[in-house]
Amino acid sequence: MSPVLQQIWWVFALLPVAALSGWFLGRRSSERHSGQRVSRLSSSYFRGLNFLLNEQPDKAIEVFLQIADVDKDTVETHFALGNLFRRRGEVERAIRVHQNLVERPNLTEEQRLQAVLELGEDFMRAGLLDRAESLFADLGRAHGSTAPKALHHLIWIYQQERDWAKAIDSARRYEAATGEPMGKMLAQFHCELAEAARSVGDSARAAKHLRDANEADSHSVRAGIIEGRMALDAGDDAAAIRAFERVARHDVDALPEVLEPLLQSYERNGARARSRAFLSEMIERSPGISPVLALANLIEQDEGVGDAARFLTRQLRRRPSIRGQNALIDLSRQSPDSDAPETLKLVRELSEQLVASATAYRCGHCGFGARAHHWQCPSCKRWATVKPVHGAFGE
Q1: Which residue ranges in the chain fall short of pLDDT 50?
Q2: Any idea where the domains of the chain sit in the sequence?
Q3: CA 22, 23, 27 angle in degrees (round to 5)?
Q4: Which has the closest alpha carbon to 172: 164, 183, 161?
Q5: Smallest Cα–Cα separation from 274: which of 285, 263, 283?
Q6: Complete edge-to-edge strand list for the sheet that includes strand 361-363
Q7: CB of 213 within 8 A of CB of 232?
Q8: Burial code of 256-295, b = ≥16 C-beta within 10 A, e = fewer?
Q9: Residue 123: which of 140, 135, 110 has the closest Cα?
């Protein structure tokens, strides 16, 4: 980070300290017989700001620490300093600041809960998840304003530990406390439990978790996929077809995840007509090439290479695709009566469309993509960072 950016960062980082110290000084200035003390604090405060603006953040922090120590009632200043230490990565110093606050007997209940929450966040930053979990669990049972944030942290911790039962409990309590819908996340947690049960052959427990997942999110794509796979495990192709079709109709982007086992189920179930009808439906709803290639393969089996090539040609004019282009080349090589010059002309047209739509340049700093060169990146405004993209569609 450049010195100028670092200076700006520190100015913003210490704004809470500056604001709170200014408020503290203003409040104290109204007290009787405190002029000398306010003058001393003001001098220290502006000395700290001077260190900050002269790119001496360590000296500035020491000055603000002295201000915080002048009066043991400067709780908010301690909070600001502890947070600053944590942001800087000085977690041990943050822990000491917040532990000192927790141990002080003159805090209000709300201040004590806030100090415990900050200490838990310090432990999280230090990787001490068991200690953080213990503090957040206590806060989550409280009724103060810190409970939702503590529950939010618990959800994160339990996901890291893959303790899905506790994650579910915390998510439900968080939803009850905040009113924020957690159904989609809860469905994912239940699906994790269903996958675990399925992996050990406990289909009854897996089915129960899938019901819970669908109750949490009635359109859970993942639950539908697991349901279809469990049907395949049981040899029930008809049930697998229903599950996979439902998934694709709800979220067409999930089609590539279920297409292969779905096609296999159609084949085993003797449902060729249903297969072709479903693929035609998906072609109209999905911009992807997977259903097109699958239907082209069925047309080739049922009606021959020529009809498959003509179908694929029509579709590729609507949705250019490298995979589709390769499939067309393969079909043309197989067809004895194929028009090679016409096929090559179409392949060239498709290639030109793909190249025209591809990103030709990319910023090495922020990743911004562009089709034309820019000396200054339109996104991050850095100079000379936009370079040609190398690869299939680039240089």
Answers
A1: 3-12, 17, 19-20, 23-25, 28-38, 70, 394
A2: 181-274, 287-357, 359-395
A3: 120
A4: 183
A5: 263
A6: 369-370, 361-363, 386-388
A7: no
A8: ebbbebbbebbeeeebeeebbebbeebbeebebbbbbbbb
A9: 135
DSSP 172-194: HHHHHHH----HHHHHHHHHHHH
CA 378 to centroid of chain Cα atoms? 25
Q: Rounded to the nearest 5 degrees, what angle is found at the Cα of 167, between the Cα atoms of 240 and 218? A: 35
CA–CA gap between residue 309 and residue 330 (Å, rounded): 9
Q: Check: CATH 1.10.730.10 for 181-274?
A: no
Q: What is the pLDDT of residues 81-92, one digit of tens each?
A: 777 778 777 778
384 DSSP 8-state letter: S
Residue 213, both tokens: 């997942």
Residue 298: CB partners within 8 Å, gap ≥ 6? 272, 275, 276, 279
CA distance from start to end of the chain: 32
Phi, psi angle pair for 370, to nearest 5°: -145, 160
Give the model confidence (pLDDT) of 367-388 as tens digits.
999 888 888 999 998 888 988 8
- Cα atoms in the Cβ-side hemisphere of radius 13 Å centred on 337: 5
Q: Which residues contact 160 (CB under 8 A, 6 or more apart)?
A: 129
